[in-house]
Amino acid sequence: MMRIKIYVPPIKTQGIKTKLVESIIDQINFEIKGKWIEPFMGSGVVGFNLRPKRAIFADKNPHIINFYNAIKNREITSQKVRIFLEREGKKLLEKGEKYYYEVRNRFNKYHDPLDFLFLNRSCFNGVIRFNSKGEFNTPFGRKPDRFRKAYITKIVNQVRYAGECIHKYDWIFIAQDFRKTIKEANENDVIYCDPPYIGRHTNYFDIWTEKDEYDLYKLLSNFKGKFILSTWYKNKYRENKFIKRFWNKFSIITRNHFYHVGGREINRNPMIEALVLNFELNNIKGQQKHRRKTDESQISLFEFGS
Length: 306
Ligand SMILES: C[S@@+](CC[C@H](N)C(=O)[O-])C[C@H]1O[C@@H](n2cnc3c(N)ncnc32)[C@H](O)[C@@H]1O
Hints:
It is built from 10 helices and 8 strands. Helix content is 35%, strand content 16%. With 306 residues, the chain is α/β, with parallel strands linked by helices. The chain has 2 domains: 168 residues, 3-Layer(aba) Sandwich (Rossmann fold), CATH 3.40.50.150; 95 residues, Adenine-specific Methyltransferase, Domain 2 (Adenine-specific Methyltransferase, domain 2, Orthogonal Bundle), CATH 1.10.1020.10. The N and C termini lie close together (10 Å). α4 packs antiparallel against α7 and α5 runs antiparallel to α6. The site of S-adenosylmethionine has 21 residues, from α2.
């Protein structure tokens, strides 16, 4: 497995794949002739580290997309982020919790991407959660001194790096449902899907249903190019029944991962993550390459490096 320095993007999302980036990128040992496509962008950490020449980052959550489009059209720069966070961070320190909720109300009225950054980096556990009216409703992370100098510099550097990539490469950010994104892909494209995990209670922009999982399965099964899907395999309590139902006809790689999201005990236990691929696996821990199997009884499961 190659060793790379992992870049963490400025907007954090639950289910961020920071710890899996290397293993995912390890599988891309071929030239991407078309576009790299992430129908469930979230933080975009995989694409930001792979740095493809052409990419589409899509997500149903328009606030994530607005933030990156604001960097793209230079409404947001690392300098502006520094000035904004220094000013707002000072107010948070002076007024405490009350100020967090002021910014939250302001964001829910005007949807300013800088306010979204402020909330994302000072809310409880970095959880992005919206109520049924589409209002951001994650409570305060209870750290009035959140925006200390070093933390601001960290975020500013994350924004600078994101900006460098966005201005160097041909990347598109678009708010849309995954069905549209996948339908528009062509056989030279490579799709990386990281949908909300089915059967687990995560606080995503919207919920993920069996119908969504089925639609995703159908679209990816018919897709002529290469795809990689992140999903969960099992934890101490249960298995992901959709592995057997849908995904078993593809190659699957598994890996233990500690999952932090959610107040519920079940969501904080170690779980086995799965990568589902419709192409030949790259070497895993020096093992030989394995062909994609179509017969369920022959499915190969490989543990990949920790
Ligand atoms: C698990 S997160 C992606 C995490 C990302 N790969 C990362 O490493 O940060 C799932 C994302 O899917 C988005 N999403 C949920 N339902 C969607 C849908 N129907 N179409 C497109 N995006 C959706 C959520 O807003 C969320 O950002």
